[in-house]
Design brief:
Layout: H1 2-6, E1 10-16, E2 19-26, E3 29-41, E4 44-54, E5 57-61, H2 64-72, E6 75-79, H3 84-96, E7 102-104, H4 108-112, E8 125-127, E9 130-132, H5 134-148, H6 153-166, H7 169-175, H8 182-185, E10 186-190, H9 209-218, H10 224-231, E11 240-244, H11 250-263, E12 268-273, H12 276-290, E13 296-299, E14 318-322, H13 323-331, E15 339-344, H14 353-379, E16 393-398, H15 404-411, E17 414-418, E18 425-431, H16 434-449, E19 461-464, H17 468-477, E20 482-485, H18 491-502, E21 508-511, E22 525-528, E23 532-533, E24 536-537, H19 540-547, E25 559-565, H20 579-588, H21 600-614, H22 618-623, H23 631-640, E26 644-645, E27 648-649, H24 651-658, H25 663-674, H26 679-692
Parallel strand pairs: 1-6, 6-7, 11-16, 11-17, 12-14, 12-15, 13-14, 15-16, 18-25, 19-21, 19-22, 20-21, 22-25
Antiparallel strand pairs: 1-2, 2-3, 3-4, 4-5, 8-9, 10-18, 23-24, 26-27
Helix pairs in contact: 5-6, 13-14, 14-21, 21-23, 21-24
InterPro entries: DEAD/DEAH_box_helicase_dom, Hel308_SKI2-like, Helicase_ATP-bd, Helicase_C-like, P-loop_NTPase
Protein name: DEAD/DEAH box helicase
Pfam families: DEAD, Helicase_C
């Protein structure tokens, strides 16, 4: 005991029923835990019995040893939670030994455990109408997290950070039940930024009168990114990679360059996008804006059952198409005429799994086609644009690229990078399971739609989820007007939804990946019902592409993004991470580099397509693609599969190429045919496999 007495720097007293809990601490650590019983004497309260705790047992000691401890202590503290009667008794006892004590605010949880933990207004955390220390509050939060599921490190860190910030345990645990308190759910804010760029007046552009007049009617000056692009040669044939946030006006750069070249006889314009929904919208926009000065057609590909889209006219001045649609035209030998400008929107698609290598191949094949076509045109004086066409201009557009300089170099394009964000975006995180999400989405949609911006527009919402079925499920549960929107809807129905949203008749649309690629819905709010697309977690790039849909400068004062996160949630057993882990990875992550990677199937598919389009020049096409293709190995596999004979595609090879089949899919079909399977059963099998992937 004497050794412990010598180490005393704080003696802490806390009322425990009729007794007193005694804690002796040194340097913040407890060195003795005991219970003191008091007795009433004619001189006042005095120590009657001291029991020192030893593990689960108690060892009796002389009450005089308490007095010895108290006299050796550098300071004596009485817990604020001790009753007025208890404080009076303790003060009277200590006064008898000429000892002073101070009443301090302490953590009751610690005090009940015999631990002295003083708290201040800066450290006290409210819990069940009383204040406790941060350590105990974090322990209580951990218990709550264990009850709700295995919330992972990043989510725990965020909740603990919030707990210490707001100093209210109940408010934090309410987040786990879907509380929408914006002060708590707010993760951060992406500030609005304005880069200083001198705007280019539209009357100084010196374009063909057909488009010059239209631009002057619409705008006095160009937007900053448009001005940058024009100052660096966009309307003079310069190839460019334009990287700028959503809603900063990238599309008009391609329009100015392409329509001007069409009207000046320098070849037609191709405007290529990744999705049918986006192609349909761009086609309608081009028809409305430029249909009186150029012919516009649509090329969205050929299905595996039916024929070409009947709106496609290869002789049109402007072809709006999907990547696969135009690639299909090349693979089947269609004459697209002389191409003056190619605009590839969402070029970051080069980094995606299946679609990435196909876009890489398309660019190489299209460049080959343009070279050959111009050579032929220049040999025939009668061909339009034969002498003044020059090289095809390439403009690549994206809002999300991590390795901008590297990608621009690989594409052989000048980089135009503009980092302005027209409106700020608030990003929020809250926790909910699948059923709770529906209720939260309903509340968020209502809250947004019932609010008008300073520009007079209601708040409207895009809800992203991971399947078409969930789109319909969520839309049905929303009380305000809403509609599902995905690639499974026909064009007429999608157009109706787009018009209703534009007219502010819909409070929300619920969609899969289709809108992320840029379909023009002026939403103020984006909600992530899921952080997966299908069975794959979103990439940082996809995430930024989607959240960038929130907030438009002409409509809203700010954008709002909500991530509804299911602790320990996953959508397929192949997903190694959980949704709460993914949420903070996405929020804190850096944009991925755009790189095209080839597995064996992809290498074989693109090499075959290059052979079909370019014959003996296929190796040259392979060599100039962004991703590295093991050409020799791929040709060996094509020979083994009997897709080619020599370097000539076989009938089987042409069929496989025409329908964008991987070798795996091709052999699945062949196997089913040999077994006498019904054609519709084969298609169903392919569709099922595609959805599973």
């Amino acid at each position: 005991m004497s050794q412990q007495v010598a180490q005393v720097d704080t003696l802490f007293l806390h009322e425990q029923g009729e007794n007193v809990r005694v804690a002796v601490q040194r340097d913040g650590s407890r060195v003795l835990d005991a219970v003191l019983e008091l007795k009433e004497t004619s001189a006042g309260p005095r120590p009657a019995r001291l029991r020192v705790k030893q593990g689960s047992s108690e060892e009796p000691r002389s009450p005089d040893q308490f007095v010895e401890l108290a006299r050796q202590a550098a300071r004596i503290r009485i817990s604020e939670q001790t009753s007025e009667r208890g404080r009076k008794r303790l003060r009277e006892m200590l006064d008898a030994y000429q000892l002073e004590a101070k009443v301090v605010r302490t953590c009751r949880y610690c005090a009940s455990a015999g631990q002295y933990s003083p708290i201040t207004s800066e450290t006290a955390i409210l819990a069940d109408d009383e204040y406790i220390c941060p350590d105990c509050a974090i322990e209580e939060l951990e218990r709550e997290l264990a009850y709700h599921g295995d919330v992972t490190g990043s989510a725990r860190d965020r909740l603990e950070e919030l707990l210490l910030d707001v100093q209210d345990l109940d408010r934090i645990t309410n987040l786990l039940a879907g509380d929408l308190d914006p002060e708590l759910t707010k993760f951060d804010e992406i500030s609005a930024t304005v880069d200083e760029v001198d705007p280019v007046p539209t009357d100084s552009l010196n374009l063909h009168p057909g488009i010059q007049d239209k631009l002057e009617d619409r705008f006095d000056t160009l937007l900053p990114v448009q001005s940058l692009a024009v100052e660096n040669g966009a309307t003079e044939g310069q190839d460019q990679l334009v990287v700028s946030a959503t809603a900063t006006g990238k599309t008009l750069i391609g329009e100015m360059a392409g329509i001007d070249r069409v009207l000046n006889g320098k070849g037609k314009m191709l405007f290529l996008v990744p999705l049918v929904a986006l192609a349909n919208q761009k086609y309608n926009d081009f028809q409305e804006e430029y249909g009186d000065i150029v012919d516009v057609t649509l090329r969205v590909g050929s299905s595996r059952i039916g024929g070409d889209d009947n709106r496609f006219d290869p002789s049109a001045d402007v072809i709006v198409g999907t990547y696969e649609g135009v690639d299909h035209a090349l693979r089947t030998g269609k004459d697209l005429g002389t191409i003056g400008t190619v605009v590839i929107d969402e070029v970051h698609t080069l980094g995606e799994g299946e679609r990435g290598h196909r876009l890489d191949g398309l660019i190489s094949r299209l460049k080959y086609y343009c070279d050959v076509e111009r050579t032929v045109a220049q040999r025939h004086d009668g061909r339009a644009g034969a002498h003044d066409a020059g090289d095809t201009q390439w403009i690549y557009l994206s809002a999300t690229v991590g390795n901008t300089s590297e990608l621009a170099e690989k594409l052989g394009a000048q980089l135009i990078e503009f980092e302005e964000r027209p409106v700020p975006i608030e990003r929020h995180v809250t926790f909910a399971d699948g059923y709770e999400k529906l209720d939260l989405e309903d509340k968020l949609v209502k809250r947004a739609f019932d609010t008008k911006s300073s520009k007079g527009y209601r708040g409207q919402t895009i809800i992203f989820t991971n399947s078409r079925r969930r789109c319909h499920e969520v839309s049905r549960k929303l009380q305000y007007s809403s509609a599902p929107y995905h690639a499974g809807l026909d064009n007429k129905r999608r157009k109706r939804v787009e018009k209703q949203f534009a007219d502010q008749e819909l409070a929300a649309v619920v969609t899969t990946a289709a809108l992320a690629a840029g379909v023009d819905f002026p939403a103020s709010q984006v909600i992530f019902d899921s952080l997966a697309m299908g069975i794959e977690w979103l990439t940082v790039q996809e995430f930024h592409q989607m959240l960038g849909r929130a907030g438009r400068p002409d409509y809203h004062d700010k954008g709002t993004v909500y991530l509804l996160v299911e602790p320990d949630g996953a959508y397929h057993n192949s997903q190694e991470m959980t949704e709460d882990e993914v949420a903070f990875k996405l929020l804190k992550g850096e944009m991925e580099s755009v790189m095209t990677r080839y597995d064996e199937n992809a290498a074989v598919e693109e090499t075959l397509a290059n052979l079909v389009v370019a014959g003996s020049q296929a190796k040259r096409l392979n060599a100039r693609m962004l991703g590295e293709i093991p050409t020799k190995h791929a040709i060996g596999k094509l020979l083994e599969y009997e897709f080619i004979g020599g370097l000539e595609p076989t009938d089987l090879g042409r069929a496989v190429c025409r329908h964008f089949l991987s070798p795996t899919e091709a052999f699945l079909i062949l196997d089913q045919i040999r077994k006498g399977a019904d054609p519709y059963a084969i298609v169903a099998e392919l569709q099922l496999r595609e959805e599973e992937l």
